[in-house]
Amino acid sequence: MKNNTFSIMLVDDDEIDVMSVTRAFKKLNITNPLYVANNGVDALAMLRGESRPQISPRIILLDLNMPKMGGIEFLEQLRKDQTLHAITVVILTTSNEDRDRIQAYDLNVAGYIVKPVTPSNFVKAMATLNKYWTLSETPHD
Amino acid sequence: MLKHLSVRGKMIMMLTLITVSASLITYLVPRASYKPIIDIIIPRLSITHKVDNLVLQIQEEMTQSIISNETSSIGHIELYIAELETLKKEAAPFLEKVDEDAVVFQTLFNQAEQISQKSYAIITAHQQTIEMLEGMKPLSDDARDLFATHDVSITNLLQEGTTEEDIFDRKLLQQIFLTRQFIESFYAVRLETIEYIANSEDDAFEEREHELLKLDETLAELESIITANDSDFMLDTELIANFTQIRNRITAVSTNTVNTHKTTLGLLDELELLKFEFNKTSTIIQDKIEKSLGDGLKSLAITLLLIAIILPTSASTIGLIAVNKIIVRPLEQLSHSVQKFGKGDMSARVHIKSNDEISRLGNTFNQMAVQLQKNFSDATKRIDELQKTKDRLETANLELEQFAYVAAHDLKSPLRAIANLAEWLEEDIDDAALTDETRRYLQLLHARVHRMESLIDGLRTYSRIGRINSNAEIVHTEKIVRAAVHYLDTPEQFTLKIPPDMPVFNTYPKDLEQVFFQLISNAIKYNHRPTGQIEVTWKENDDFYLFTVSDNGPGIEPEYHNKVFSIFQTLETRDKVESVGLGLPLVKKLVEHHGGKVNMESAVGEGVTIHFSWPK
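Predict the joint structure of the above. Result:
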């Protein structure tokens, strides 16, 4: 198994959704550092070092419906950014709209997960995701 | 104007011109060509008819007079003759006219005059005959006296006895016989004369002659008896003279009457001839007049045809400038306005100042244009209103879609939060602290959260039908059905009966999938038997495939058949069967969206069969 100390960024405005992720991590013994941004603007600021601490996550878990800057707009900014464009992004959202899926995949997301309603299913989804990213090879690290 | 018109346009133009020209006859046809018609032919025709009529009346009067011995007829005939005179005076200007028709016209009058005069003569003669016959009446009275004398004589003779003087008796009886014979002949002559006059039969005439001879013979015999008689003979010479007078008068009257009647007959024959000639003349005149009228009309037609031909080709070169001004320009204006109007310029109107048929046509066009413009503006207003309504509906639909989307996200997030928090509570609280009751509450909380999620999903799916346009592609209906059965985790004891030749056709796969999915889902979900059976059948008509999905479940009472197609309507309480009441409404909306129909056939205990049609 690879060194899994890389950091993960969660961009989500819903406090309880954030909690689900942290609880799932805890339950699954995922120890990777988890940074949380509440919207696209904050997330970009953190990634570009405009606010402390600057972070360089290998994976971003991204919600779509957020205030200030939504997930799709954030993705567009990210893919245009010279240094950040290659980051793996997995959409984690409540939106089941085809339109959102299509837009997301057009912007090279690694996955699109509709948030399961029950916590147990959410934990299962997180487990699968963890397995996936621990298996995935990336250009750096 | 004419250059840019099509051939058909030119033809229409020609027809219009002919029509319009016909109504403009008074402007265009030289007055000379129809003047004789009005000035001479028509008056002559009218007078001919009057004369004809008069002659007819005279004839009738005369016939009537002969049949009924009316004495007033002479007066009537005199009146008719006077009328004919008046007509002749009236006709004088047309009689003087020097043309070939005038000669015939003159003949007509001559013949009519002759007829009336002859008729007058006949009636006069007839009247005289009547009078003469009347004159014979006193003679009849004489004869009656004679009979009376005879009767007295016979009575006297009978009183004096019959045995003494046989000769005397014989002579007396001879006298009586002869006298009776004379009287009988007299009556016979009178009868035959009347008969002859009434019927003009030759038999009656001969009978009359015969009776006249008999009358003479009888008289001669009587005379011879008297001259050879003794002094005591009762018939004297005075009586014979009386007889002779009677004989002479009856002969004279009868002969006179017969002769007069013969004259009358001759006159009637002549009259008949005259009448025949007169009718001929009258016919000739009428024919001539009709021919003149025909010629007049023909010349009119030719003139009109010329106008029709000349106008479109070279109005200016031939120099019909007046015609050009009267007809061509107004027509051009009319045509121009009609074209403008036809191209959508609703304000196009015709302005023709003249007071003729073209201007009337123009006015009619203007009235029509005003009406059309009004109707058009009404229609435009209505279309605007409809467009606004359509826009409003589209906005409302868009808002609804937006709402469904928002509902999906914004309603589901708090829902999920509730579910999470409930579970975390359950996890975090010591198992010891949780009573069975609180555990049950938490379970119920989860179940309700799940139902709400289903409701939200269902609502969104339902509101999306018809909004999302997928592409048509070849669909294997058997595969769809089998996929639905598979996906629905159908219990193993359930059997699916499906025909081997399910149709393969081009349609919208997602929608048809959804329909089968919902129907098979219902067939499984509501089946009370452990060994459920689902049967799919199909047939087709010209435009549709007709599918059925049946089950062997409990069935539905007929009064609920319509209810189950309403949204969020469930028949079982939701606690018993987890259902949101969206399946059949969804099927109905999908099928109807594609133009098909859906209905249910079911009775309690006999399962449910859903029929639906899907366009080919």
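Residues 470-615 of chain B form a domain with the Heat Shock Protein 90 fold (CATH 3.30.565.10).
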